[in-house]
Design goal:
The chain is built from no helices and 35 strands. Strand 30 and strand 31 form a beta hairpin.
């Protein structure tokens, strides 16, 4: 019997979407869509002199319902890292929260659909903790992960909370003595098992391996796996069979970045590893990942071409066979970078990111491919100032496509612009939120 799939990506989880969607590591705003077509956009905004974690809700017609800001105890600048929805429609936010007497803690905040804050929980040590990713399981429990410093080395640390905010367990992973291990991505499956992955390095020297961990719902470590290489994971998803897929980049000895994707079975057996190197043999990196109901894996990112970076999207079958790869170069022939990918129920693929254009610093660029990789349409968004605009997240829900990102506006801090399209590319609305 297939398990339900609940996935988390570095800086974002889009639970309830068809397939699995992913975001580029380290980017905000992030996006989640509920079953009624309400969209939740989260990032940060400036209130006075302090940066606060910020959540904005729009209804299906694009009418703003409310704005909520969370300012940590130190009122010294808080940074969002992820968003998730529970089965009941509650919203979870996760990030780095400045706490009195601490440099930065894991901070998890829960709101109900009406914007009431239900609870806020901090977890950390008297060092600068580095939160990275979160996920919500089918029971509404929330899992968060990142890195904390223990005995002068970084350890992957994963925390589970119940729906009422009670902390169930905390699990630090030290690995071999003296090694630094850092979390980057996290996912949970339908049984409440949690998967975490990130790079590892010796006490001095570069990262030299990828570490992947699996815990059961009680926090028992079921297995750990290592893959040698200078690997930077960006996204993770669990398919309906409990296989876990990770994508990002790898730098071969003496070379440049390549796409890197690895699949493990539920028992930790490595099923396959795939790399992809663009025609120019220069920098290429996967930023996002989506898995469909048939177990096909879609990765997207950037690849160096003749005139700069291009979008590159690849589809693999469940056995890791490459079904197709598609490169897209924007009209300016300059920098085009894909940051997020989503799937609809028919297996169509939606990719978004940024594309440099003549006369502007960059536009949102969203592309739709059919399941066989044929280009169906492209859509661009250029903000009012023709400044720097780039999309960071895409989601499909209820026959609609949602895109959000940053767009230069009247203030020094870029605004968040969220757009809703029909699946044929017709734009229904665009809404701007001024962060300053």
């Amino acid at each position: 019997m297939k398990r339900k799939r609940y996935v988390c990506f570095f800086l974002g989880i889009l639970l309830g979407l068809i397939g699995s969607s992913g975001l580029h590591a380290g980017m905000t705003p992030v996006l989640a869509i509920d079953g009624d077509g309400n969209s939740y956009v989260a990032g940060s905004s400036l209130l006075g002199s302090s940066m606060d974690i910020t959540l904005v809700k729009y209804n299906a017609s694009g009418v703003r319902q409310w704005i909520r800001r969370y300012d940590g105890p130190a009122a010294a600048g808080d940074l969002l890292k992820g968003i998730g929805l529970s089965p009941a429609g509650d919203i979870y936010l996760f990030g780095q929260v400045r706490n009195t007497g601490y440099q930065g803690d894991f901070g998890t905040v829960k709101y109900d659909p009406d914007g009431h804050r239900l609870w806020a929980k901090l977890c950390g040590r008297p060092t600068n903790d580095d939160p990275q990713a979160m996920a919500v399981d089918g029971a509404g429990s929330v899992f968060v992960t990142g890195s904390v410093e223990l005995d002068s080395v970084k350890c992957i640390t994963t925390v589970k909370y119940k729906t009422d905010g009670a902390r169930v367990w905390v699990r630090p992973y030290r690995g071999a003595a003296g090694r630094h291990n850092e979390a980057r991505v996290l996912a949970v499956d339908g049984d409440g098992n949690v998967y975490v992955a990130g790079p590892s390095r010796p006490s001095s020297g570069p990262y030299d391996r990828l570490v992947t961990l699996k815990y059961d719902s009680d926090g028992n470590l079921l297995w750990s796996r290592r893959r040698a290489g200078l690997i930077d994971p960006q996204a993770m998803a669990v398919d309906g069979s409990g296989n876990v897929c990770i994508t990002g980049s790898i730098i071969p000895s003496g070379g440049y970045k390549n796409f890197f994707t690895i699949m493990y079975a539920a028992n930790g057996d490595r099923l396959w590893v795939r790399t992809a190197n663009g025609a120019s043999n220069l920098g290429d990196g996967a930023n996002a990942l989506a898995v469909d109901g048939g177990g096909n894996v879609h990765v997207t990112g950037y690849s160096t071409g003749a005139d700069g970076y291009d979008y590159l999207t690849i589809k693999y079958d469940p056995a890791g066979n490459r079904l197709w790869g598609r490169r897209y170069e924007g009209a300016a022939g300059d920098t085009d970078m894909a940051y997020s990918v989503a799937l609809d129920p028919d297996g169509n693929v939606y990719v978004t990111g940024r594309s440099d254009v003549v006369g502007a610093s960059g536009n949102y660029l969203t592309i739709k491919y059919d399941p066989d990789g044929h280009l169906l349409w492209t859509r661009e968004f250029n903000g009012a100032t023709s400044g720097h605009d780039y999309a960071t997240a895409v989601a499909v829900r209820g026959g609609a496509l949602y895109v959000t990102g940053e767009s230069d506006g009247a203030n020094s801090l870029a605004d968040y612009v969220t757009i809703k399209y029909d699946l044929d590319g017709t734009r229904r609305w665009a809404r701007r939120f001024e962060r300053q």
